[in-house]
Amino acid sequence: MKDDVYDSEDDDMDALVNEAEKLLLSSGSLDLSERALNEGVMKTPGVSYKTAEYALSDENNDVSEYETEGTEELQEGLKALLKGNQTFTIDTIQRKLEVEVPEVLTPHWLDSLPLIVVAEEVRGRVPALISKLQHALDQKNHQEEYKELKQVKSTDECAIAKLPENKPLNRFRNILPYDFNRVELTGKHNYINASHILMNVGEMEAHYIAAQGPLPDTSHDFWQMIWEQNISVIAMLTLDVENGKVKCHQYWPDSVETPLSVCDGLYKLSLLRVQSLEHFEIREIMIENRPMGTGRLVYHFMFTNWPDQTAPDTRPLLQFLQLIHAHHTTGPILVHCSAGIGRTGALITIDLALAQIERKGRCDIFEIVLELRKQRYGMIQVKDQYTLSYLACLDALRIFGSSMELTD
Q: Locate the Tyrosine specific protein phosphatases domain: which residues (predicted)?
C-alpha cells in the first residue's frame, strides 16, 4: 500500500483498517415514467423535518457521525421502482448548449459562450430576479437559509454502504449513499459510493450521478459504472492531490501512449487528447468493451482551481458548466470531487438553479439544496459553497441582462 496522506489522521487509520478488513474478507434496466418520478422523488408532499443538529462543520474537512431518521413516506415511490433492479436508466432532457465546438478550445471561444439562455417568454423577469438575489445577499438571507438547512437530518438508510465488505470502498466512513437511490453495478459485488440525483425543472428531467472520488481499489468500479450508465461526460472538481493530501486516485490514463486495462481486461481506456486551459483540463477518453467489440467516447472535464472548503471565481465555473453541456450527449452527468457532496453539491445546485432561470425566470436555491439532501447526505458542505450558488446565478443573470440591453 502506498504511503498516501488522507484528509486526517483518523481517515488515514480508517483507510488502513478498511484495507485489513478487505484482505480478511477476500479468504436489467428500468425506465422511469414522468408520472412515477412525480410520485416518488420529485414531489414529496407531507414531509416534515424536525429540528436537529445537522452534522456538517463549516470549519473543517471532517463530517461527523449522524443519526438516521425514519423515512416515513419520503422517497417510497422511487424505492419501490428501484427494488430488485441492478441497473438504473432514465430518459432525461438535460440543459443543452447548442454551439459548434472547435477542435481546439481557446480562451476567446470560451468567452464567447453564453453563460445562460433565458427563454424569451420569461426574459422580462430577469431585472426583478437580479434585484431579488442581490437583496438576499445584502440582507444575508442566504446565511439564514444555510443555517436552516443544517438542521435537516439524514432522511434514509445507508445499510448497504455499511456492510463489512463495502466499508473499504468508502473514502470517508460517514459519507455514504442512501440505499434507495445508490448506483448499482451489475454482478455479485454491485456497490459503489455514488448516488442517482433526479430533479424536474418544468419539462426538463435532470439526471446526475454524484460520486466520491475513486480510491485505488474502486477505480475499476468507477469505469464499470461509466459504461453501464452510458455516461458521456465526467465533471471532476478536485485535484488528485491537494496540499499534500490525496483527494482522488488518478483513474484515467497517464498519456496517449499508455492505455489502461480495467475490470480484469473487460475495458480498455485510451487517452486520445488532452487540452489545458487556465481553469480546467479536458481529456477525451475512449472506453472499449473488449468482449462486445464496441467503444464510446467520454469527455473528462477537470476544474483545476477550486480548493476544498472554498469557492472559486464564478465566471470560470459557469463556463465549465456550459462546456459540459456543449459536449454532453448520453446518460447522466457524472460529477465528483473527493467526498462527492461539497463541490459536487454546489455544481449541481448551480446547474439546476440556472435551469430554473432559463425556463421559469426564477430560482429557489434553498429548495434545490433541500431536495438534493434528500437524495445524497450533506450536499453542499460549507456556507461558502451555498453563497457561491447565489453569486454564480447573479453573475450569469447580470451578464445576460447586459447582453439584452445591447440588443434592445
A: 318-387
Written as one letter, the residue type at 118 is V
Domain count, the chain: 1
Decide: 142 and 390 in contact? Cβ < 8 Å: yes
Angstrom CA distances, 170 to 6, 23, 117, stand at 13, 15, 38
* Residue matched to cell numbers 460520486: 211
DSSP line for 139-151 = TTHHHHHHHHHTT
Contacts of 54 (CB under 8 A, 6+ apart): 66, 149, 150, 151, 152, 153
Concerning whether 393 is annotated as a catalytic residue, the answer is no
Q: Return d(Cα 331, Cα 308) in angstroms, integer.
A: 27
Answer yes or no: is 4 within a domain.
no
pTM of the model: 0.79
Average of per-residue pLDDT across 325-347: 96
197 in helix, strand or coil?
A: strand
pLDDT tens sequence across 152-190 = 877 789 999 999 999 999 999 999 999 999 999 999 899
* 3-state secondary structure (DSSP) of residue 241: strand
Give the model confidence (pLDDT) of 397-407 as tens digits: 999 988 766 55
Active-site pick, 158, 337, 363, 393: 337
Give the separation between CA 43 and CA 199, rounded to whole angstroms: 9
- The range of the structural domain enclosing residue 100 comes to 9-407
In degrees, to the nearest 5, what angle opens at C-alpha 35 toward C-alphas 366 and 321?
45
Assign residue 280 the CATH number of its domain: 3.90.190.10
